[in-house]
Amino acid sequence: MAQYPDKPLTLVVPYTAGGPTDRVARDFAEAMRKALGGQTVIIDNVAGAGGNIGAAKVARAAPDGYTLLLHNIAMATSPALYRKLAYKPLEDFEYLGMISEVPMTLVGRPDLPVANLAELTRMVLAEPGKLTIGNAGVGSAAHLCGLLFQQAIKGNMVAVPYKGTAPAMSDLLGGQVDLMCDQTTNTSAQIANGKLKVFGVTTAARIRTPQLAAVPTFDEGGLKDFRVAVWHGLYAPKGTPPAILNKLNGVLKTSLRDPDFLRREADLGAVVVTDERSGREDHKRFVMQETQRWAPVLKAVASAAD
């Protein structure tokens, strides 16, 4: 244990490179590297099945502290979305701590002929099934947010799933799809440079960063109390030795205080966790609560879609 780690760590990201969770992971990996005294942290993008392939890979990995998982809200939503999972989120992992929470934005191709959320809502309701809304695959944050938005306005759009957020964003920018509901970590730059039309952010108050300060909240757009945030946490395979788990939790907490990491996340509209959820037990308790919270919501959405 005294020499751990004495070789590079692998941080599995269960989504494509360039997507919002990948962005958080790469920023966090750099902060981890510094907290580990310069030890290399390798990003391994294992995308597919809404994050389930990458998560299952880590669940089966050797419990030696060298293969870790950085995952998002899907740790709590997957049990309600999939009848069969190759892993058990609450049983097959050691919880290491929460990292950040990221709000969502509803964005559209720049030539979409509506100016704000109210006009978009009227268009969706007037022409059900006409508009398309891209996502990063079934169970992704973009998919969930899009479903909840349609449920909230009692409207219907055609979902277009992709194998990750990066290809979905590419088609949105190219005009092949009309809309996408995605994390600020993936949309803030495109919003700031005017490449996307933005209809709202899912926070109670506006985000006070240069890229997002002008973006209205959903409340301002007339859709009250629409709140969706994507959180990220760090996990190790079940059975990892306690000494290594404690070491990794200490590395996580140090990384969350890294000035460069804090700055980069703030620029993207992300909120770095500073409360007790950075602890192992509180992290797991939070995911259990989120699992219970999302289960009835997702079942209602699925029933409405049927």
Automatic annotation (TrEMBL):
SUPFAM superfamilies: Periplasmic binding protein-like II. Keywords: Receptor. It comes from the Bacteria. Coiled coil: none annotated. Gene3D superfamilies: Bordetella uptake gene, domain 1, Periplasmic binding protein-like II. Belongs to the UPF0065 (bug) family. This is Tripartite-type tricarboxylate transporter receptor subunit TctC. It comes from Variovorax soli.
